[in-house]
């Protein structure tokens, strides 16, 4: 199992737009083959900093999602709201 954590700092005025994107896409991501869990975490001290935390069956399942039409819609819209993107982390459990 792969655990993926993506930490993102958003432009404060665009945080609501990102939250709409996440709300509208989280169930589709969860339903993607190989995805066992996805959730959104907000930083305690910086309200415009969020992390997505997801569990994937394998790197191949994650990469299939990253090559999908869904990711091709979600990520560009998300990037439009970012102030700073952090490199995603992958961990094995």
- How widely separated are the two ends? 6 Å
Order of helices and strands: EHEEHHEE
Helical percentage: 25-40%
Mean pLDDT, all residues: 89
Approximately what portion of the residues adopt beta-strand conformation?
Answer: 35-45%
How many H/I helices? 3
- Cα-based radius of gyration, to the nearest Å: 13 Å
Number of strands: 5
Contiguous low-pLDDT stretches (5 residues minimum) are: none
Structural class from helices and strands?
alpha+beta
The main sheet comes to: 5 strands, antiparallel
Q: Shape, please?
A: globular
Written description of the protein model:
With 93 residues, the protein is an alpha+beta fold. The chain has three helices and five strands; from the N terminus they run E-H-E-E-H-H-E-E. The N and C termini lie close together (6 Å).
Set down the secondary structure blueprint.
Layout: E1 2-10, H1 15-30, E2 35-42, E3 49-56, H2 59-66, H3 69-79, E4 82-85, E5 89-92
Antiparallel strand pairs: 1-3, 1-4, 1-5, 2-3
Helix pairs in contact: 1-3
Features of the shown structure:
5-stranded antiparallel β-sheet; 35% strand; 3 helices
Task: Give a summary of the structure in a few sentences.
By secondary structure, the protein is of the alpha+beta class. It is built from 3 helices and 5 strands. Strands 1, 2, 3, 4 and 5 form a 5-stranded antiparallel beta sheet that branches.
């Amino acid at each position: 199992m792969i655990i993926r954590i993506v930490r993102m700092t958003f432009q404060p005025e665009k945080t609501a737009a990102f939250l709409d994107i996440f709300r509208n896409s989280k169930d589709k991501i969860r339903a993607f083959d190989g995805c066992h869990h996805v959730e959104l975490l907000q930083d305690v001290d910086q309200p415009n900093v969020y992390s997505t935390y997801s569990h994937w069956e394998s790197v191949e399942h994650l990469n299939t999602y990253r090559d999908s039409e869904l990711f091709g819609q979600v990520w560009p819209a998300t990037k439009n709201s970012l102030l700073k993107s952090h490199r995603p982390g992958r961990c094995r459990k």
